[in-house]
Amino acid sequence: MFRPGRLIGRWTTRRGRPRTLLGQLLAWAIGALALVWLGFVVIGFQTGLHEADELTDGHLASVASLLLSQSAINFAAVREQVAEQASMRAHDYQRSLSVVVWDAAGRVVGRTGDAPLPPFIALEGFDTLALGSPPSRWRSFTRWKADRSRRVMVLLSIGERDELAWDIGAQVAEPGWWFLPVLALVLGLAIRRGLRPLDRLSHEVHALEVRRAEPLAPGERPLEFAAVVDAINTLVARYHAALQREQQLADELAHELRTPLASLVLHAQTLQRPLDEAAHAASLRRIEQDALRAGQLLGELLALARASRTELADAAAPLDLVALAQRVLADYAQAALDSAHDIGLVAPSTWPLSGHAVLLEMALRNLLDNALAHTPPGTTVEVQLDAAAGWLQVCDNGLHALARRASGAPREDRPAARSLGLGLGLGHRVVDKVATIHNGRFGAVEPPAGFSTCYRISLRG
Known about the structure:
- By secondary structure, the chain is of the alpha+beta class.
- The chain has 11 helices and 12 strands.
- The chain has helices spanning 4-8, 21-68, 75-84, 158-194, 196-206, 226-271, 277-313, 321-338, 357-373, 398-406, 426-437, and strands at 97-103, 108-112, 125-131, 136-144, 150-157, 317-320, 342-346, 352-355, 380-386, 391-396, 441-444, 453-458.
- Helix 7 (277-313) runs parallel beside helix 11 and helix 8 (321-338) runs parallel beside helix 9 (357-373).
């Protein structure tokens, strides 16, 4: 079963418990809403306090205007009646007002309410006074009659006014206390419903079986999931292709290894019987060739396994292909000298690209190994790079060298190249895999002038 968590790891809390996207979205959304909600509650409460102040000031001014419009009022009778009917004060917003009336000379001609007698001041309008002993704060509104014959002051205790303001402010802010939990519940249900496509996608991913190469079925998904679905399908296809290639390689290697191993056993058994000197030497040579062949097969198997691991596990990194080729050729200088080969490099000063340096070096070494092993002494092997065209190739003139030898050209007194009978084509499979990993191609191409064989890795498809 395909488990994405094994590739990208689990998203966990500090205590190691898995987090959920729903929980994260709810936490951030409710946190943001809580800040907004708190702001609205504070603003609503302050607005309630302000409106309560405006309401009481308007009430004071209205009462003063009403009293000034009356021709005469018996304040003593009104005060007595209010005192007798104090139980009638039952409305939440009803407040106790005090009224003082002066004549033009400043004599008190009427008074009602609990407020201490304020001083006679000719000023008009709203004011906050400290009256009584100990002093208490009162909100007042003063106004003269148009003919300046009467002055009316209406007072309200600041304590009562603040009580009214807090009551109104609380009433304004009260909806916010139930708004947040209700909104959080509704928001949680909406987010949960909106995440259903993601839940379905998660179940589909967990149900994938890459060995069957079944990608995610196309369906009605949100546009934001398109890139994720494409990436998963691409990963499944690559993984399945890698499995197929490795299975095919394993089958081929099992078949190829069977022959040299059987031959090794056969000739080892032959050596246990009495043999003449020629037969004994022939059996030893055969055992050596079979061992070399088996070793080459195992080397190719390890190279392909390394390439497969790099393809799935390692990321491409910047590198200079020219510097890499120079380093590889320097390593082969002594081997070329021992086998009487001439090696060279034709390349620009630099070729920066993004790739797997280990794999590209392995592919180049494989091509050089083949060129040095399968050509006679006196062959020229040349590594050529073209950054503009995007290819790397290894060319040799081995067929020309064979033709010269056949025509009787003098042979150099150097050690012979390695046996030409070890080539199995698996080395080219390694190079082809490296080219595929780099989105390129590998194959034989028309050799340039002076060469007879040329193999090219195209790194730009």
